[in-house]
Write a structure and sequence with these properties.
mainly beta, Jelly Rolls, 9-stranded antiparallel beta sheet, 6-stranded antiparallel beta sheet, 1 helix
């Protein structure tokens, strides 16, 4: 997991106060979709004041690009994530994730986190894919990661510096991960019941990795 000590003290204040600072703009709309699932959060990251965490840390950095949200892990197995600065219980998270840089062997992972009650330590559920075509589901605890579904290879995952569509469901004790329309994993765990969502990336080599996220939609199951 990442070292949460910011490289600049001013950024720590911004990350901690992202929901309450004036001038952050109006969060993306919340409401129904006209017969579909209830939309809890929708963001194409075109507004850099939509409330997501921005910061540069020892282990990586997160922030807004030109119409996307980026997560960079500086490498060495450090996991980096950026939170939405909101709170949810049961959610379906859908997002387009594009790995744009990585070690030559694509020894990375990236994806979404749900129910992180402590964004500083990274607790919560991690629904992940890797640059070399694997998927996993993990539980982040104060003691580290517990793998609920070990990394397993799947041809449904596009490898390398390409885009994948991730759909993660956190409903009651049920967790499921679907990638590019293929259901890859389902598991149950009841430790965490509510919390923030986040976008995450890890490089397991000395070379950094950057993943860009776009077209995020969070709905009620």
């Amino acid at each position: 997991m990442r070292n949460r000590i910011l490289l600049g003290g001013a950024l720590l204040m911004l990350a901690a106060m992202a929901c309450s600072l004036p001038g952050l703009g109006t969060p993306p709309p919340i409401g129904g979709t006209g017969g579909g699932a209830k939309v809890l959060l929708q963001d194409d990251f075109s507004n850099p004041k939509s409330g997501w965490e921005v910061g540069d840390y020892d282990a990586g950095k997160v922030g807004y690009g030109n119409g996307y949200y980026y997560v960079v892990s500086y490498g060495g197995g450090n996991t980096m994530w950026g939170v939405a600065n909101r709170s949810f219980t049961d959610v379906v998270i859908e997002v387009d994730a594009t790995q744009v840089s990585a070690p030559a062997n694509n020894n990375t992972d990236y994806g979404v986190i749900c129910r992180t009650a402590d964004p500083e330590s990274g607790t919560g559920y991690y629904l992940l894919i890797s640059g070399d075509g694997y998927y996993a589901i993990a539980k982040g605890t104060d003691a580290g990661f517990k793998w609920l579904v070990d990394f397993t290879e799947s041809s449904a995952i596009r490898q390398g510096n390409v885009s994948n569509h991730i759909r993660a469901v956190c409903q009651g004790s049920k967790l499921s991960l679907t990638v590019n329309g293929t259901l890859l994993a389902e598991v149950e765990d009841s430790e965490f019941t509510s919390g923030d969502i986040a976008l995450t990336a890890t490089s397991y080599e000395d070379t950094p990795t950057e993943v860009r996220f776009d077209n995020l939609v969070v709905t009620a199951p």
